[in-house]
Write a structure and sequence with these properties.
The chain is mostly helical. The chain is built from three helices and three strands. The protein has a three-stranded mixed β-sheet. The chain is rod-shaped, with a radius of gyration of 29 Å. Keywords: Coiled coil.
């Protein structure tokens, strides 16, 4: 490279700089896209987790029973306290008269028959 004049070396280095800047822009675009895809995957996993969960609405008055909903039920919109099947079984043991939402019908996703006293019997 010492055979090149200073002006030729300047042009070569400017070309290298421009190529590296192009590569950096391409890499940044790729990273941005990968991060968007990762965030979308995380969001989809969270939606799926909620859809496969249940939630327990506290009783509204003293002596009443709580109400069980599917995780994505719009009737009870809390974003906290999602239960897995094991915790639903515990809730059913603790609250044998547990009310189940008529709208989202959580007994179906639990694989249990419609509880006595539920609408449609």
């Amino acid at each position: 490279m010492s055979d090149l004049s200073r002006s030729e070396r300047i042009r070569l280095n400017e070309g290298l700089r421009d190529w590296l800047a192009y590569q950096l822009r391409q890499t940044e675009r790729t990273l941005d896209e990968l991060k968007r895809e990762e965030e979308e995957d995380r969001r989809r996993r969270e939606v799926a987790r909620i859809e496969m969960s249940w939630k327990l609405q506290p009783a509204r008055v003293e002596g009443a029973q709580p109400m069980l909903h599917r995780g994505n039920c719009g009737l009870y919109r809390t974003q906290l306290g999602y239960l897995d099947k094991e915790h639903v079984v515990i809730a059913l043991e603790e609250f044998p008269e547990l009310v189940m939402c008529e709208v989202c019908a959580p007994w179906g996703s639990l694989g249990i028959p419609r509880p006595p006293g539920q609408p449609g019997e």
